[in-house]
Design goal:
single chain, about 350 residues, alpha/beta, Rossmann fold, 3-stranded antiparallel sheet, 13 helices, globular
């Protein structure tokens, strides 16, 4: 759908302001659909990833991991498809350094060095790529995710935390370079949250894509005090080392517990059934079972529950239907604000 043919939706003469907070592969799908439905989108993207190409680049040149930011840039860009294909191209060379790296990750890392920080680098790239919306790294500095497990042990690093396969009690973030300093989000991030009509969490890994953002002190406080409705898009599948055996209600409980109260207003839960042959578990090896529905538990955690078949099955994977989810989000933007 071209920009001119998008659904026109306005609030008092303007596009609805939707702030989406998270990371991972599910986020770009929702962002693209919101953009197509004429939302004024701001994506606040996690910077605590330490795996894959992003993690290797981070270790080599000590920049914020660029992978999630790269995918979000593409999802909101009006650049030509050929340019986006180049930006997303991943080297298959056997070269010890370039193998597996996405060109976009290298460009983001280079611009970060040129600009002196990741925030300005992403704003420059947004202009170059004709991005419709705003893309803000959750922090200008690389962050390390830390977790305490129910058994009292502590682990650091997204990858190491997931590898433990233990039940997580709570998580927090520290500045990777200066652990004694309190991580903060830059002022445009806080302003976007304060001015939003709705704030959306997810979809994405609960402990490693969503909560790291909320654990940035001033960002979490902005979410708690915002007049906007807080919407959580619940995951379709449970995830190894994070949400094993979690119901949808337990996902919401964990968010509320980390925020320190009952803050989630609305939750979107999938009612479609994932069949035994719908998901290639070898390819998507982080997933376990479909998240079970607990309506009574959800009622205790939030005010509004929207249940529908939000499934999109393709590429041997299980994903959210971005258009359906975006429609529900925008409906909430028009119907409700937090009092």
């Amino acid at each position: 759908m071209s920009r001119d043919n998008r659904i026109v939706r306005v609030i008092k003469g303007r596009r609805p302001k939707v702030v989406v907070i998270g990371g991972g592969t599910g986020l770009p799908v929702i962002l693209n659909s919101l953009r197509q439905q004429n939302a004024d989108v701001t994506a606040i993207v996690t910077v605590a990833d330490d795996g894959g190409s992003s993690g290797i680049i981070r270790n080599y040149i000590n920049v914020v991991p660029p992978g999630d930011i790269r995918n979000v840039l593409v999802s909101l860009s009006d650049s030509s498809q050929s340019m986006l294909d180049v930006f997303q191209y991943r080297f298959d060379s056997k070269d010890a350094f370039f193998a597996g790296h996405a060109i976009g990750n290298l460009i983001i890392a280079a611009l970060t060095e040129m600009q002196g920080n990741i925030f300005d680098a992403v704003q420059t790239l947004s202009k170059m790529m004709d991005v419709d919306g705003h893309i803000y790294p959750a922090s200008n500095e690389p962050l390390t995710l830390n977790a305490e497990f129910v058994d009292g042990t502590i682990e650091s690093g997204e990858t190491e935390i997931s590898k433990q396969r233990k039940q997580i009690k709570h998580v927090w973030v520290t500045d990777t370079d200066t652990p004694d300093e309190t991580p903060e989000a830059v002022s445009p991030v806080i302003e976007a949250i304060q001015e939003a009509d709705v704030i959306v969490l997810g979809p994405g890994s609960l402990f490693t894509s969503i909560l790291p953002n909320l654990m940035i002190k001033n960002l979490g406080e902005a979410v708690r005090t915002s007049p906007a409705e807080l919407i959580y898009i619940c995951n379709i599948m449970t995830q190894k080392g994070e949400t094993e055996s979690y119901t949808d209600a337990e996902h919401v409980r964990v968010i509320n517990d980390h925020l320190g109260g009952k803050y989630v207003d609305t939750v979107l839960v999938n009612a479609g059934k994932v069949g035994p042959d719908d998901l290639d578990y070898d390819r998507y090896d982080e997933y376990l079972l479909q998240v079970k529905h607990d309506f009574e538990g959800l009622q205790k955690q939030c005010d509004c529950i929207i249940s529908d078949n939000f499934l999109s099955l393709h590429d041997n994977g299980v994903f959210h239907d971005g258009d359906k989810v975006a429609t529900e989000i925008l409906n909430r933007a028009f119907q409700h604000t937090k009092h």
